[in-house]
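Re: export button greyed out
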Amino acid sequence: MIEIRKANESHVEGISSVCTNAYWATYGETHSNEYIERVIKDYYNHERILGEVTESNCDWGGYFVAVEKGKVVGAGGGGMIDNRVGELFVLYLDPTRRNEGIGTKLLDIITQQQKEECGAEEQWVSVQKGNMRGIPFYEAKGFKFQHEKVPYENPTYIKWRYSRKI
Ligand SMILES: CC(C)(COP(=O)(O)OP(=O)(O)OC[C@H]1O[C@@H](n2cnc3c(N)ncnc32)[C@H](O)[C@@H]1OP(=O)(O)O)[C@@H](O)C(=O)NCCC(=O)NCCS
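Workaround output, generated via the alternate export path:
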């Protein structure tokens, strides 16, 4: 049975490992190893995640995790980016556990948090241009493509911005 819950200190290692593995699985073919390693080092290190599971407010609602037999198999989180506007900042699964509905459950709980606790009526997400492991999921959830964003520091890795009413 899979339990969806708010993450705490005991999930730090699992979140780090799921995000690291999913990041390689998602971007290994399209992004340089150097870039991937830097993102993983900056965002998915234990110290940072420990801070992110202990802090929770409307700007960052904390991590939610999908846990099976004590093992983290998925992780996600988001926050508000404007009045009534939420964003999904991160959503990753153990790459061997896709298409079982786990991503849906994590997105649902994050969406519920943003609506009920923070008054969100709209939700955004950034996806790497052409990420066919992510885009069909968001489209199935009613997200619509809005615009392209070329990151100043890494103009090669274009992001697509999607949004939906919630
Ligand atoms: C994106 C992700 C979190 C989705 O989670 P998931 O558990 O695999 O998705 P679900 O099983 O809940 O699927 C939900 C819906 O999306 C659809 N879907 C998901 N991935 C799809 C794909 N690659 N192609 C077509 N449809 C897809 C499913 O058919 C399902 O539709 P339905 O509800 O109408 O039946 C997960 O696949 C993942 O970790 N992908 C790689 C990492 C990534 O790209 N993350 C997003 C970064 S922004």
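The two ends are 28 Å apart (CA to CA). The button fix ships in the next patch.
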